[in-house]
Request: fold
Amino acid sequence: MSADRFLEKVHLEPDLERIPGRNILRRLFRRGAADVSREREAVVIAFASGKGGTGKSFLATNSAIAMHRTGKRVAVVDCDFGLANAHLLFGVNPRYSIQHLLDGVVPVQEVLAATPYGPGLVAGGSGIPSLAELGARHMETLASALQWLARTHDVLLLDCPAGLAPQSMVTVLAAQHVVIVTNPEIAALTDAYALIKCLARQPACPVVHLVVNRVSPAGLGRATFDRLAEVSRRFAGCEIHYAGEVPEDSAVTHRRLGQPPLLLSLPECATTQAVLSVLATIEQRIEAQLRSMSNDGVEARMLEQIRRW
Amino acid sequence: MIRGPVLPQLRDSLWSLVSRRLDAIERGLTLVVEGLDCSSGQLGLVDGLARDAMGGPVLVLLAVDGDALLSARVLSACEFLTRVGDSLVTAVPEANFCGGIGGRVLLVGTEASASSLELLRRLPLPAFQVCRLEPFRLAGTERFAVRWLSAEGTASSPRMAVAPTPEFNVPKERSRDWATLRSLCERIDPGVRIDGDRFWRRITWSGRLLGEVWSVEGELRAVTADGMQSTLSGAGEIRAFADQLMRQYMQYMKVAGVASGNASPEEAGAAKSREARHRGASGARSGSGKAGDESLRSSLAAARLSPEEYSALGGSATLSGGGTAGAALADDAARIAAAQEGPWPPLRRTD
Reply:
């Protein structure tokens, strides 16, 4: 039987009805058809927090390296438009940054820099004094750049700026999954909750994962999550998912410029293991929800938020 | 920085709070004078002399952390009452104490003085009571509950939350009337509860107030939920009061019918608005509650945390070790004092 004849036969419902196990076959064919029709796009994960200094960049860079080592094409976009530091953690000093991209000086293809550890990096800006200077036009440029990155990579990690400025929220809402990084201290906790509350009010709320960083003693992360999850459920009507805790580690805080990321320099230490565990949990949940979530595209999501600006 | 609720730890601040809220510790307890010396100046002053609902004298002492003379002062106060308690009727005429009513020593403490309270409550002293104020935060305001510590150790047992309420101090000649009223209440509905403190009883059904009864100066006084007052001095008054309780109970039953579809239009409307408020408060993750047409900036502005949310998250402050709690005590005390200025709702004992 020729291939055309076979396909023709498969699509004839009466014939399919006679095949044992036809329901499984039908599901397989339908799934395959859907995959072919949909354009492949990277999973977009945003690392966000209400308060600054909670460890977003640390987690984003180490997660990117870990994902890259599993064979995925990963890009990190440092969306901190004024005080970027992801490039320092990667140990690179790119020629172009997101500032050049937003100003239209160079296209995203040139801003994307290679790092010694594998993932690509769009370095954040350091010459934009205020987020207020970023208008809708800048954000549309960023949306277009993210769309290109999403089409050319498997995973796109957005290292979002702290705070609840509209520009920050537009980048957070560009993602399908938001990893909120907080610390077990009340200031970080309330700021994280403010972010969750804000996300819960959005028409298309992304899946929210919570990582509690700088935890001491062990187990405090879970307690912190329980508290935050309860408040989020009660007051914001938002379900959040526990991704895990990362212990307080002087090896992280005392890192010097030029040292390789912790994942590579101290692969066996508790912090590295915790980061890997967090990442595994997040990936597992992403995998579980991949088919059930609609994917309109990162650019469409961002443009929708810019429209609501 | 958000912290858990705390009570003042300094004697002056705590006394300022307690002296104004004696009625919250025990119904009818009123302050007569402050600073009573009953140890010839050797052990310091008893913080206050109060009059209880029966007209008896009560020596009120505060337990604060680091008070080395507290035990001695308690013993001295008890001895003082034994010696001259009966004479206080004439010695302090402005207090209007009733003759023949025995005096008491009341020790009031907080979490900070828990160890002292725990030790002192074990002392086999006659007419000596110990209570602990337990602060909590409700809807952004600081409040406290009163936890009575009995000599039998019920408060330290795991079942302290359901410890029985103190025995109602009924005048002897009215004890029969009170027993009659209790039995009538039980006949209204098995769910009717009677609880309160030594001089006050609250009659409730499903958390709704039916009426209250006070033991005041040898009488039983009652008030219904709608404010009708009476003195229960015989079988007729008891029956009339019980009838009022029954009517109130029937009204509540009617309101409870809202849930089963038997509500009046007004009640149904009220229920609908309650539901709408609940939907609004419980967020917008699902369906129509979402801010679909809301601008991004508006949704950011709406993300401002309410006092209730701050309060609910505040418990986590202790998770981080509460390192700043000590430094912020003065701030907390000021906040509590400020909250005192406003009308506090009636406080209820927790056990």
Summary: The two ends of chain A are 58 Å apart (CA to CA). Residues 1-38 of chain A form one domain.
